[in-house]
Amino acid sequence: MAAIDLAQALALLLADEAVAIPTETVYGLAANARSEKAVARSYALKGRPATHPVIVHVTGADALRRWVSHLPPAALALAEAFWPGPLTLVLPRAPAVLDAITGGQDTVALRCPDHPLALALLEACASHGIDGLAAPSANRFGHVSPTTRAHVEAEFGADFPVMDGGACRVGIESTIVDLSAAEPRILRPGMLDRATLAEILHLAPQAAAKDAPRVSGSLAAHYAPATALEVVSPDALPVRAAACLAQGLKIAVLARISREQSQDVSRAALWWSMPEEPAAYAQLLYARLREADALAQDLILVEALPETLDWAGPRDRLARAAHGAGRRTSPSSNDRH
To answer: N or C: lower Cβ tally within 10 Å for the chain?
Structure first.
């Protein structure tokens, strides 16, 4: 089936099937969040642990009350300010919410995506009785998230149903804010940073604590390429790259410094000059990691990112990718289809 239109996607969702949909962050593997069968189908496709919750995508702030038992004013304020957009809210769940999408917890994660195809599909689903789509990233669990239709097909095969919305504009997953405790907490950084959120909340969200709810993408090893990956300081990167080449390794380099600035590493098989600006960097990151995997390099070297709030999202993804990189089968192996 491969590329599908809105009507075909709706028909599949009504039949409790899963389809890949574009959002502004990454492509999601959408399924009816009210259907045990549909959610189980999505989990099986991804190989996702049953205890790892998913994010429910909804039409907007008006849908929140159908999913939560208590709606704090801060939740409405954030939804009205940033939805549609790359922000997920964790709130106390309503009794009817399936355990399957919460990982058995007493909280549910919700967001409204900022992509015209995703919004149109959510509205169509709502008119047919589906008021939310569980939509984790459309890839095998732990792999690099997909930001194009081709990435989804690399995970699930060319016949998998995908709504093609082009390349994702944001490129990394949403910021997740927990509003189920006394104080707001950031459980996963994204491109909405703490300072921006503080403008609406009138206080800065805290970092995640040990008692925080489990959420998507919060494991130490996640977003991982099959190729080993090292994050290296800017000063050390040229020396490390040269040493790897001297050992005969095939390397890919992702750096904000150019090849010309990097001393004698001209023999590197791949050198991608990454953007200097956080949003542009995030938009390209997963595509570059997937390209390096596809070209079967021995090692990916990535220049460490600045320790500032605006780089928190990409920095988090790189840390998790490095922790899990090289520990799974390559993208060309049969287990990915």
So the answer is: N
Torsion of CA 224, 307, 111, 79, to 10 degrees: 180
Q: Which domains, ranges and CATH numbers included, belong to the chain?
A: 6-207 (3.90.870.10), 228-336 (3.40.50.11030)
**Contact between 187 and 213 (Cβ < 8 Å):** yes
pLDDT, averaged per 10 consecutive residues of the chain (337 residues), comes to 91 98 98 98 94 96 96 96 98 97 96 98 98 97 95 96 98 96 92 93 80 78 89 91 90 82 60 94 97 92 95 95 71 35
Distance CA 35, CA 41 (A): 10
Termini Cα distance of the chain: 15
pTM of the predicted model as reported, rounded to 2 decimal places: 0.92
Q: How far apart are CA 290 and CA 167, in angstroms?
A: 14
Q: What is the tens place of the pLDDT at every residue in 200-229?
A: 998 888 877 777 888 887 777 788 899 999
216 and 109 Cβ atoms separated by less than 8 Å: yes
CA dihedral defined by 3, 336, 10, 167, rounded to 10 degrees?
-50
